[in-house]
Amino acid sequence: MTTPFTNSLLFIVFPYLAMFIFFLGTIWRYRQSPFTYSSLSSQFLENKRHFWGLVPFHYGILTVLTAHIVAFLLPRQILRWDSQPFRLHALEVTGLAFALLALVGLLGAMLRRLTNSKVREVTTTLDWMVLLLLLVQVTTGLCVAIFHPWGSAWFAAGLTPYLWSLVRFNPELAFVAAAPVLVKLHIVMAYVLIGVTPFTRLVHILVTPNPYLWRRPQVVRWYRSPREIA
Amino acid sequence: MKSRFFPMAFFLVCAAPFCTTAQQPGNFFQQNCSACHTIGGGRRVGPDLKDVTKRKDRAWLEEFMEDPPAVLHKRDPYALQLQREANGIAMPAVPGLTPALAEALLNYIDAQGGAAPPPAAAPSVAERLFTSEDLAAGTELFQGTRPLSQGGPACISCHTLGTMTGLAGGRLGPDLTLVYQRLGGRQGAGAWLTAPPTPVMQSVFHQHTLQPDEILSLLSLFEDASQRSHPAAATAEIPIFLSGGVLGAALGLVLMGWIWRSRIGSVRRTVLKAAQRGAA
Q1: Residue A192 belongs to domain spanning
Q2: ipTM score for this prediction
Q3: Using an 8 Å Cβ cutoff, are A62 and B262 in contact?
């Protein structure tokens, strides 16, 4: 992962390719089968483990994802916040707590799909692929946070300029090319997840308004086989 | 025609970043090499490059300049000797150093070899003794409580010092406890901070250069750290950090269980009971 060619491929070509697939794929899927823009709930089949898997996962991952987006959009404000060691450490510990919530929830969701025969029956290969990709992504993110602190500061100082250089079609690879392997793996996995979004249940991220987080509990019943829908 | 547009545009978008522009060797040397090297001005972190082409053949020099880590990885004896002479510091890969530019740089070094004073000499750091105010200012700059005047991020983002306690500094970059000694004291470390030669530092600080008074304060801090401490173990802060995270996550789970304590526990059982009530 260290040659200039590999770096260019992974951190210039790959992100553009992932975004290209993401935009075209999501538009194509919406035009082809708009009613599949869903995560295909399995809540009706089993609800107890569903709660302890999906709720911690979603609150954890959405908070961590939002933190990444804020560091991308408002790097100076993040660096200003981090200018007091106590605030920096508090932010990092909070981020780690939410990342751990995401990991606990994800492992819970995977265990549920493995052990509950009814839920296993409606689980497709693509569902497993998404879960495994998310597991790798959350685990590498946790490892980066633990072994290469302080991510909130160096993301804002080094990775944000790299991401903006991609947006401006003038990629600056120096920071990311010299980053540790764990950081590189985390970035590449993010591009993979963006690229597979249109073809998997991850597409439900795009359904707006998205009331999953605050709506009252509801029961979902299917009138078709989930395998047909997927 | 329309269907061909997207692949062509996509190819151009992807290919554009690989194109590079020509750069003057003198400017390139000043921006990328002068922190560690002089041409006839004596040794810094790296060797004085005067007459370098007489000491080693051009083919080897160009290969080394283009990718020093690769040559070191091959256990090349001369490259290893250079690393030993530089207190173990390996020359980093220099971004944008193409084969053509490497050749032009060697020509430039040859041409400058006899000149005095060397035009590519890095600015020197003030000679006065460090004061307690310098040390206090250096500590504040390192931790970020005093912002760098040009807007650069605080050192704590990526670096730590053996003198720091608690969760300490970052671990993306190297521990800087002994950096003052490794870079050859005040002049060597000062030159390094004036024009950082590593790709990461260049990318972060090329638009936020450190000012002379800030460099002096940081040097004071680094000298102090090197005299009264030693690098902390790379994993020293992990148990504290991880404990905080686990505690926070456990609190989150308890909070979720409490907030949604009246949720539907089992959908099928609830539906069945409702159906049974209906039947009765």
Answers
A1: 4-32+46-203
A2: 0.85
A3: no
